[in-house]
Amino acid sequence: MDKMLIFVIAIIAAVVLVFATFFVILPSMQGGDEEEGGGDEGDGTILTATYTVYVLGENGTNSGWRWSLTSITVSNNTRVTFHIINNSTAAHGFMIREFPPSQSSIYPNSIVDIFFTVNQVGTFSYYSTLLGDEEMVGTIEATP
């Protein structure tokens, strides 16, 4: 009887995981949208953009970690939020050198919001600051 109960619980957990993957996680990995925010003192408009980023990889290993979102394009003078979800069992870091204070530790099973303003045109990298996370790299393309 105990084996049957464990089997039923495992099936229910698998169904919930599949549902969450296809109806919650994958749709939110599509990136973010720019929209007008409040005005600034210069040319009148600051855009805002929010992106949900997942830590992807194999729990229990030290390789294969990556961001779910590896490239975004935003306009200059955009206030960006990265909503980072780390459902893994490993800690990671986050940094963009050109847009401080966009550095943070991302602990296992946690959510971190990173806020920064893109205030120059160009291509910039975001990455994990921890050893072993060399594959966790993404780019931000800032256009005029």
Notes on the protein architecture:
The chain has about 140 residues and is an alpha+beta fold. It contains one helix and ten strands. The longest helix has 27 residues, at about 1-30. It is elongated and about 65 Å long. Mean pLDDT is about 75; it is low at about 15-40.
What CATH architecture of the largest domain do you see? Sandwich
Q: What is the helical fraction, as a range of percent? A: 10-25%
Q: In this structure, how is the largest beta sheet organized?
A: 5 strands, mixed
CATH topology of the largest domain: the name is Immunoglobulin-like
N-C termini distance = 66 Å
Per CATH, the superfamily of the largest domain is Cupredoxins -  blue copper proteins
CATH class of the largest domain: Mainly Beta
Q: What is the number of beta strands?
A: 10
Low-confidence stretches: 16-42
Q: What oligomeric state do the depicted chains represent?
A: single chain
Instruction: Kindly estimate the percentage of residues that lie in beta strands according to DSSP.
Output: 35-45%
- Rg (C-alpha, Å): 18 Å
Mean pLDDT: 75
| Tally of DSSP helical segments | 1
Could you say which overall geometry the principal axes of the C-alpha atoms support? elongated
- Whole-number total of structural domains: 2
Strand-pairing-aware structural class: alpha+beta
SSE ordering: HEEEEEEEEEE
